[in-house]
Write a structure and sequence with these properties.
Layout lengths: L2 H12 L1 H12 L9 H13 L4 E5 L3 E5 L7 E7 L3 E2 L12 E2 L4 H15 L2 H4 L5 E7 L7 H9 L8 H8 L7 E7 L8 E3 L6 E10 L15 H15 L10 E2 L2 E4 L10 E10 L2 H21 L3 E10 L9 H10 L5 E3 L12 H7 L2 E6 L2 E2 L8 E2 L2 H33 L6 H12 L1
Parallel strand pairs: 3-6, 3-7, 7-15, 8-14
Antiparallel strand pairs: 1-2, 2-6, 4-5, 8-15, 9-12, 9-13, 10-12, 11-12, 16-17
Helix pairs in contact: 1-4, 1-12, 2-4, 2-12, 4-12, 8-9, 10-12
The structure holds zinc ion.
Length: about 425
């Protein structure tokens, strides 16, 4: 361990109480995607207290601070601002049902813990590049009503946190992103290095229009939108045998509106679903099948079908740990159980970190310190050192490894990265899907 690595660890240890109390505070006041105003304010104040200039309100609630003035690459540490609707969670906010049952409060604490160390002059003087601290909104699935409302008000062009940041150019000056999460695939390690593949997703709102009439006296005059929706769901069920295992297709609809009164034939039914798959081709192919199932089922019963798509997420491209991350982890390995991701382990859930993996180098690790299942009432941070402090050290040490010695590790990573999509092509995909 060199003296600057020791300094990073010492600074984070000295500030452990502050980092933990921030994480506890945010855990008690989770906010929904694009409504993370209070969380964002707290992040802003924390970053300002470190003497960093802060940009605020990016994509409604996002926060960005950067060390500046250095030539060389910029490494961005990302924290996700939003909670998840999980009213049964003991820390859910009573009015909204939002809690941090996905552990995003830990990401925020990790980012700020790393910021304490990396903004300290004794460390930042050794960096041949800049560090950005990025609190990005709306990683979770965003309700269609919220998407529609924010688009209509002109507050967003793409209703998804990281996508909108890319669209706004807020990640143009970030060369490498560091992302973290509580473990998303089963792991007993304290730290799991690398990024397992995940599914990508497209959000869909399917509105079936029929014709109302008295449900008992005149059903022959009606067009039953609920029957059309049921037929569409049956068609979707029959399509499932065409989904290939290797594509990890998941389609999981809910009925948001099934009718208005039991004695009136339903004239409008709203179904929302996510279409997920492990690759973009399977996402788009399945999306077309779902559209056909509902459109043709509606037509078969004389109803009509209106389908609106919402950007979801792109699949995460599996990435093993890079040298800077592995070297940083080695320093911490006497006090922590650390392992690399196992290859070819598919995460069936989705994250918009996947979008970033298509356009820029992303260094990812996940951490323990929690028990229970993600998005569930029993999710709980049970070891604050492992959930907040240890990962903050790993993030900060990784940045140091990337940017020390003329930023050789960062430059090598940037040069060797081959994007699957240009940023322009990615924005086109996102905008076309949102239209
Ligand atoms: Zn999450």
């Amino acid at each position: 361990m060199d003296p600057y690595e020791k300094k990073i660890i010492d600074l984070i240890d000295e500030n452990a109480d502050r980092i933990i109390s921030f994480a506890r505070d945010v855990a008690k006041s989770g906010e929904a995607s694009f409504f993370e105003f209070e969380t964002a304010r707290k992040v802003k104040e924390f970053l300002e207290s470190l003497g960093l200039p802060v940009k605020f309100g990016i994509a409604v609630t996002g926060v960005k601070a950067e060390t500046s003035g250095k030539r060389g690459p910029t490494v961005g540490i990302i924290g996700e601002l939003d909670g998840i609707r999980c009213p049964a969670h003991p820390q859910a906010v009573p009015d909204t049902g939002i809690s941090h049952a996905c552990g995003h409060n830990a990401q925020m604490a990790i980012m700020l813990g790393a910021a304490i160390a990396l903004s300290d002059e004794s460390v930042s003087d050794r960096l041949f590049g800049n560090v950005a601290f990025l609190a990005i909104p709306a990683e979770e699935h965003v309700d269609s009503e919220v998407c529609d409302s924010l688009l209509e008000q002109g507050k967003l062009s793409i209703p998804s946190g990281k996508a909108e940041w890319v669209y706004l150019g807020e990640l143009d000056d970030v060369d490498i992103a560091i992302t973290t999460h509580v473990h998303m695939v089963p792991s007993n390690s304290d730290l799991l290095l690398g990024n397992n593949a995940s599914t990508g997703t497209i959000g869909k709102k399917i509105t079936i229009h029929g014709k109302a009439a008295h449900a008992a006296a005149a059903p022959h005059l009606a067009v039953n939108a609920l029957n059309a929706a049921s037929l569409g769901l049956s068609a979707l069920g029959m399509l499932r045998e065409t989904f290939r295992e290797k594509d990890f297709v998941r389609v999981h609809p809910i009925i948001k509106k099934g009718g208005t009164a039991v004695n009136v034939v339903p004239d409008e039914v709203i179904i929302e679903t996510m279409v997920r798959a492990g690759n973009i081709e399977a996402m788009l192919e399945t999306d077309r099948k779902v559209d056909t199932a509902f459109t043709c089922s509606a037509a078969a019963l004389g109803a009509s079908c209106e389908i609106k798509n919402y950007i979801g997420k792109l699949p995460v491209i599996e990435t093993p740990p890079c040298r800077a991350l592995s070297d940083a982890a080695r320093i911490l390995s006497d006090k922590a159980d650390i392992s690399d991701i196992a290859p070819n382990v598919q995460n069936a859930a989705s994250t918009d970190v996947g979008d970033l993996t298509h356009i820029m180098p992303v260094i990812n690790f996940s951490h323990g310190g929690f028990e229970g299942a993600l998005h569930s009432a029993d999710f709980k941070i049970c070891d604050e050192y492992k959930a907040y402090i240890l990962p903050a050290k790993l993030a900060a040490l990784t940045v140091y490894n990337l940017l020390k010695d003329n930023a050789e590790n960062a430059d090598e990573l940037i040069k060797s990265f081959k994007p699957k999509l240009s940023r322009a092509d990615y924005i086109k995909y996102a905008i076309d899907l949102t239209k």
